[in-house]
Amino acid sequence: MYCDFFGFSEKPFTITPNPDFVFLSSIHREAFARLLYGVDSHAGFIALTGEVGTGKTTMLRTLLTQLDSDKYRSALIFNPCMSAEQLMASICREYGVTSEEQNRYGYLDALNRFLIEQNGSGRTVVLVIDEAQNLPPDVLEQVRMISNLETERDKLIQIILAGQPELDEILRRHDLRQLSQRITVRCRLTPMKLDDTTEYIRHRLKISGSRIPDIFPRAAVKRIYRFSGGVPRLINVACEQALVMAWTEEVTSVSPAIVDEVIAELQPDYKCEGLWSNISRWLFARK
């Protein structure tokens, strides 16, 4: 589609969490530094929270790709809508751990042996649970039990709980106070500012191989920022559709008027004919 027109090697604004496109704004850099500190200092429990679309999953995947496999063993559990026993089975499966007893106690015992073995080999075991706000309280309690696996001097596993702000509310429950007290490192992702949004767009265009200057002029970026509030996922959605519209009009610069039309389409309460109706009509006319 528009990639050849703009000279992109790949689409710059997909919403999939691709570490190749990671951009660390000032806010993201601070959170990333806290994550690294928590893992390297063997903090035990780390919490990462942020609104939908602020880049939590991308940051987590980037963190995991930077952990040397000779020194770390890591696992990622995504969207864990499961029971405590199912969670334990998934964790063991991710680490390649087998258990003779197919129940939570058997899994916990097998995991403990694995952690002791890794610790003896000088490796740090990291467990990341994304979308942790979906975990029921009894499953979160099981996660706390995993953190009890330790030596006299060190935590055998570093657990990162990542989720939406609802996770903070859940952790404030009285019956989860033991878990909450064990979280020694907390990170919070918030939306980007305008300057970071500008650099974010430039960064993704550059990674995609763009050689055309000012595809998104500052006036267009400001409109995208006002619409998105600095949330990366919403920036990607707006930029993606703006590039499609620019391609249909055969222009290499996204004008403020194009952005306005895109935003009108993305806002459901706005009465208009619609961006995709225009694109469909244009494509039909070209045939």
Description:
It contains 13 helices and 5 strands. The protein has helices spanning 2-6, 26-40, 56-65, 84-95, 104-120, 137-147, 166-171, 177-182, 194-207, 218-228, 232-248, 256-266, 275-286; strands spanning 45-50, 72-77, 124-129, 157-163, 183-189. Strand 3 (124-129), helix 6 (137-147) and strand 4 (157-163) form a beta-alpha-beta unit. The protein is elongated.
Give the topology.
Elements: H1 2-6, H2 26-40, E1 45-50, H3 56-65, E2 72-77, H4 84-95, H5 104-120, E3 124-129, H6 137-147, E4 157-163, H7 166-171, H8 177-182, E5 183-189, H9 194-207, H10 218-228, H11 232-248, H12 256-266, H13 275-286
Parallel strand pairs: 1-4, 1-5, 2-3, 3-4
Helix pairs in contact: 4-5, 4-6, 9-10, 10-11, 10-12, 11-12
Descriptive tags:
single chain; about 290 residues; alpha/beta; 5-stranded parallel beta sheet; 5 strands; disordered C terminus
The CATH architecture of the largest domain comes to 3-Layer(aba) Sandwich
Please give the count of helices. Answer: 13
Helix and strand sequence: HHEHEHHEHEHHEHHHHH
Strand fraction equals 5-15%
Structural class: alpha/beta
What's this, in brief?
This protein has 13 helices and 5 strands. By secondary structure, it is an alpha/beta fold. The longest helix has 17 residues, at 104-120.
